[in-house]
Specification:
It is built from no helices and eleven strands. It has 120 residues and is mainly beta.
């Protein structure tokens, strides 16, 4: 069983930055995909970013391109999300997820989430 734990959320002013981290235990994720999702109150859970573990190739939703950067630390088995130029609409609970077989088959493990609140 894999456990994912997010950290780094908080309250920031619009235009500010936060760095989220996701620590994984139970196995390594070499060759697989790690992703970040978010869910605002009353809205569906949306894709934010993902990274291929082995290649480091990132993928982003259009809403965060140019502002967010996803990265991984292979040695620590963690994935990070650097969020810059934050907007109030970025306010949501952010979830870390791991896809073992590949994103086309969905994500297999999810963290409990960390709250990000951006004030105007």
């Amino acid at each position: 069983q894999v456990q994912l734990v997010e950290s780094g959320g908080g309250l920031v002013q619009a235009g500010g930055s936060l760095r989220l981290s996701c620590a994984a235990s139970g196995r390594t994720f070499s060759g697989h995909t790690m992703g970040w999702f978010r869910q605002a109150p009353g809205k569906e859970r949306d894709f934010v970013a993902a990274i291929n573990w082995s290649s480091g190739r990132p993928y982003y939703s259009d809403s965060v391109k140019g502002r967010f950067t996803i990265s991984r630390d292979n040695a620590k088995n963690t994935v990070n999300l650097q969020m810059n130029s934050l907007k109030p609409e970025d306010t949501a609970v952010y979830y870390c997820a791991a896809s073992i077989r590949g994103p086309k088959w969905g994500y297999d493990y999810w963290g409990q989430g960390t709250q990000v609140t951006v004030s105007s």
